[in-house]
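User: Here's a chain of 167 residues. Predict its fold as tokens.
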Amino acid sequence: MKIFGIVGMSGSGKTELLVKLIPELTARGVGVSTIKHTHHNVEVDKPGKDSYRHRKSGAKQVMVASAGRWSLIRELRDVPEPTLGELIEKLEPVDLLLIEGFKRESHAKLEVFRHDHEQELLAPGDDKIIAVASDGPIEGLSVPLIDLNDVSAVADFILSFNELDKT
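Assistant: Prediction complete.
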């Protein structure tokens, strides 16, 4: 199972990209699951929530994790938040596991960056960010820049990097 991350500051559009990317990948024959990290307590699978949207977009499994709970639903109570590795072990194998968040982990990641969001670019300080998807040009970027609005190009990049091109 290939693991690839989508990171960015809160509100940058990570989930928006994922709910467009998942159908694009599944239409190409790629089995996709997701894990979404959140800093909030998790209430799973209500219409309008990110986990609900991931599932409705075609992911075979959706796992949401926070410090208070993780789901495929399990209350953590006083148990520490599971590591990303522990969460991954709970999933059935698929072609591609997309991780939203967990920006400090060591897997390969694509950063979502919006110019009007006025937040810091993460890529210069993280050598695991191998590309940036943005809504405009970024000066001095040392990794590939992909048009955030070109979901097909983002999918092409992820599939090529993970050697999963099924076409």
